[in-house]
Specification:
alpha+beta; 9 helices; 8 strands
Length: 444
């Protein structure tokens, strides 16, 4: 029984290790990278916190309409009681008019405790602040969407760069294999005195160059993957593998819609308009508040013959009307500032709209050029491969020189590089066009 259990535990351990290795070697699609960034990217988390902050500010503005209740208490001990001038006729009816006598009133100990209520019935500044904070909340949502768009754009670019570097690595590795095979043939011919020593050195140099290039591409590939992990918000030490096949599509057409930047400028325009309206109303409209108080006042005396501390109730309720007459033109200066800010916002809207239209046309042209280049270089690669294979065969037959082989090899590598550059240019232009036409604003 123990032996069976040991076998079961061993099988489970092996299953776990195999499953763990499979998980470690899991290939991440671009969408999986974007979905991971949705959860772990810190910039996106901060943008969502800004949305929550905007919601709290809106609630704070509305809270100004809720009654405010406060408790106030104070104690005063008068070392010198306040004086008041009293007419002498108060003490002596026969005293002449116009003569006064000073007198001290009150007791040394004074205690006040009260409960105060204040409620805004109408205040143009409060209602204006509520409207402004609601628009500011919409602006925070748009800023979060812009952050999502930037993350999508950044991760897509990094993913494309990683795929291109991966293909470059494959090309260089294939070229290195061909160069190594060529080096062996040249060394064999050199031993048979059919090839020069300089021919061997030239091929060795080519092998060394390809080896260095392969190492450089491998290092760049790791750097791009680290940048991709950082953008996703995951640990740099986590194993990450991407899809090697480039999803190349040449028929994407996008419907032009409002971009995030244009929507942000529109919302900022609405916010400035709301603030300007609030300032104009606060100049001419009064504010009305409901006020009330209930409390007690205590008077105390600690004399030798008589000591006391007596409390007396006090309460009132009423309304308070405040109308601004003149505040030193401060409000007018603020209004003038907002007018200029509003004009700048309208100018910015027109500028961004025209700039976006220009960039859309440029992206379409760039994508079309890249598309044609991809189709052309694909044919060139096949042709360069055929020429290289034929030249290698001719060299074995003695009808082609080493220089012919090296030239064919260089032509093949150049065609491969041009092809990869054209593909990455197409993918980036397509991504840029997707962003400029407003089709990248949400991450699915």
């Amino acid at each position: 029984m123990k032996l069976v259990n040991i076998h079961k535990q061993t099988a489970l351990l092996l299953f776990f290790l195999i499953g763990f290795q499979a998980a470690q070697a899991q290939v991440w699609t671009m969408q999986q990278c974007i979905d991971t960034a949705q959860v772990h990217n810190r910039n996106l988390q901060m943008s969502r916190n800004n949305i929550a902050i905007g919601e709290q500010k809106a609630m704070e503005a509305k809270a100004n309409l809720i009654p405010k209740v406060s408790v106030n208490a104070d104690y005063k001990y008068f070392t010198n009681l306040p004086y008041q001038l009293m007419p002498l006729s108060t003490f002596n009816p026969a005293a002449p008019e116009g003569q006064f006598k000073e007198a001290q009133f009150g007791v040394p100990h004074n205690i006040n405790v009260n409960l105060q209520l204040a409620m805004s019935l109408y205040n143009p500044q409060v209602y204006g602040a509520i409207r402004s904070t609601e628009i500011a909340s919409e602006l925070a949502v748009l800023q979060c969407q812009k952050t999502e768009e930037q993350i999508y754009f950044e991760i897509s670019n990094l993913y494309y760069n990683a795929q291109i570097l991966n293909h470059q690595f494959v090309f260089v590795d294939s070229n290195l294999i061909n160069a190594t095979r060529l080096l062996k043939n040249i060394q064999m011919l050199n031993e048979q005195l059919l090839a020069k020593g300089t021919d061997v050195s030239r091929v060795k140099l080519q092998v060394a160059q390809l080896t260095t290039q392969k190492s450089s591409i491998s290092s760049k590939y790791e750097q791009v993957l680290n940048a991709l992990k950082f953008a996703m918000g995951i640990s740099i030490k986590q194993n990450l593998q991407i899809e090697s096949n480039i999803q190349y599509q040449n028929s994407n057409e996008y419907t032009l819609s409002s971009t995030i930047d244009i929507r942000i400028v529109k919302t900022q325009n609405r916010l400035l308009s709301s603030e300007l309206s609030t300032l104009n109303k606060s100049r001419f409209l009064p504010s009305l508040n409901l006020i009330g108080m209930y409390g007690t006042t205590g008077f105390g005396y600690n004399g030798l013959t008589n000591s006391f501390l007596n409390f007396y109730p006090i309460s009132f309720a009423g309304t308070q009307l405040t109308y601004p007459l003149f505040n030193g033109t401060v409000t007018q200066r603020k209004i003038n500032q907002k007018k200029y800010e509003f004009q700048n916002s309208e100018l910015q809207y027109g500028l961004i709209t025209e700039q976006n239209n220009m960039q859309v046309e440029n992206a379409k042209l760039q994508r079309m050029v890249a598309k044609n280049s991809v189709e052309t270089t694909t044919e060139q690669i096949e042709l360069a491969k055929t020429i290289y294979e034929q030249t290698t065969l001719q060299q074995k037959q003695g009808t082609a020189s080493l220089t012919d082989i090296l030239l064919a090899d260089n032509a093949l590598r150049e065609a491969q590089q041009v092809y990869l550059s054209a593909v990455i240019e197409y993918l980036k232009a397509d991504l840029e066009l997707k962003k400029l036409t407003g089709n990248i604003s949400t991450i699915k």
